[in-house]
Design a protein that fits this description.
The chain is 55% helix and 4% strand. The relative contact order is 0.07. α9 packs across α11, α10 crosses α11 and α11 crosses α13. The protein has four domains: 41 residues, N-terminal domain of TfIIb, CATH 2.20.25; 46 residues, no CATH class; 94 residues, Cyclin-like (Cyclin A, domain 1, Orthogonal Bundle); 84 residues, Cyclin A, domain 1. By secondary structure, the protein is mainly α. It is built from 13 helices and three strands; from the N terminus they run αβββαααααααααααα. β2 and β3 form a beta hairpin. Strands 1-2-3 form a three-stranded antiparallel β-sheet, with no helix packed on it. The protein binds a DNA duplex through α13.
Length: 310
Amino acid sequence: MEEEIESRRRVKECPECKSTNVIRDYEWAEVVCRDCGFVIADRLTDSGPEWRAFDDAQKARRARVGAPMTFSIHDKGLSTMIDMQDKDTFGKNLTPGQRAQVYRLRKWQRRVRVSDATERNLAFALSELSKMASAINLPKNILETASVIYRRAVKRHLIRGRSIQGVTAAALYMACRQCGVARTLDEISTISHINKKEIGRSYRFIVKELECFIPPLTPNYYVSRFANQLGLAGKVENVALRILQTASSIRLTSGRGPTGIAAAATYIASVLASEHRTQREIAEIANVTEVTIRNRYKELISRLMIHVYL
DNA sequence: AAGACGAAAGTGGTTGA
DNA sequence: TCAACAACTTTCGTCTT
């Protein structure tokens, strides 16, 4: 049993360099080769247990925990269901009197589970969240975070006057930011079919009301994503990150859109490392225009005194 | 012919009175 | 509520390889 799990988790070898040094990166939902940086699979679902066992005693204690508790089902997945067969534990049919009683129990069980409006609201919102999260392959921890944020918003009565879907989208966006996973408002907007403006409004409102600290999203997060999508080597990514580091140290990054800067840094790095990508290619995946890349790129080149020999 | 460059006008969002 | 403003986009013409 233990063997089986182990063999399933330790994927295969890297098809690029045949190394077996392969890791699963749940934050980015990818399986990555540690030696050459090749992304083996990028639609990873976290199917593992939600806990880790550090010794045998813990393993024994935790091995039979039943269904994991989750925040993404409205009752945290823990409530009791009464099944629909009118049989007792021995499989015998119930007497008519007992059947009537079970029927009444079921009815109340249902009513208690999803009782009032807020519960229904929560159930709907959380299923919406799951749909969105799986649409862009976000790992489970993001979904859980988003669910927690949504619950808190409900508790503080922040939903009133706003659409449920708008707030769920905002919660998902917040969760991404909190977990340091780079997803733009645009991406959330496309998968949720809600316009950016509304999500942004809800987002700002919730952040203010819940008084959460959301770390600002730095261009660094985007660089690795762009590098991956462009099929650039890890070396290029490192160069881009170094560029960003010096850029931020002389305050070149503040006030600018992080995607634009990340795109420009990636562009420069690709040129420096002679793995040239066109501005158009990068603009495409970064969702900025070539003009923006050019502007950032000019600033970076002149201020950092990088000499690019084209 | 494709890519890079830059000027000019337009757009959507923030800020401060 | 409105105007000023900065960042960014769109469009288009020119230059370089």
